[in-house]
Amino acid sequence: MQVIAEHGKEINSTACASMPYADATVKEILRIETIVGEVYRRALKTFECGGYTIPKVLTILGIQD
Q1: Residue 51 needs a FRET pair 20 to 30 A away by CA distance; which of 7, 8, 10, 27 works?
Q2: Phi-psi region of 39 (alpha: psi -120 to 50; beta: other; left: phi over 0)
Q3: pLDDT at 55
Q4: What is the pLDDT of residue 47?
Q5: Could you read off the pLDDT tens digit of each residue along the chain, which spans 65 residues?
Q6: How many CB atoms lie within 10 A of CB 15?
Q7: What is the pLDDT of residue 30?
Q8: Measured distance CA(34)–CA(64) in Å, rounded
Q9: DSSP for 19-65?
């Protein structure tokens, strides 16, 4: 109700920025249940994962079942 009082009934980027829990909830839902079957990610830096070295700029494919 506070967001409506401050920003009116129209939801815009300013109103969304003032709702961090709503933003986090949407991001978590999309992380758990993506809307696409495949997700591509690019490594921004070299790192180790499970004993493997993942080099910088490697494109990683994640498949959602």
Answers
A1: 27
A2: beta
A3: 92
A4: 92
A5: 788 888 888 878 888 888 889 889 988 988 887 677 777 888 899 999 899 998 998 887 776 55
A6: 16
A7: 81
A8: 7
A9: -HHHHHHHHHHHHHS-SSSEEEEE-SS-EEETTEEE-TT-EEEEE--
CA distance 64 to 38: 6
Task: Show me where the domains of the chain are located.
Answer: 1-33, 36-65
At residue 10's C-alpha, the angle toward residues 28 and 12, to 5°, is 50
| Distance of alpha carbon 34 from alpha carbon 45, whole angstroms | 24
53: its two tokens? 């070295």
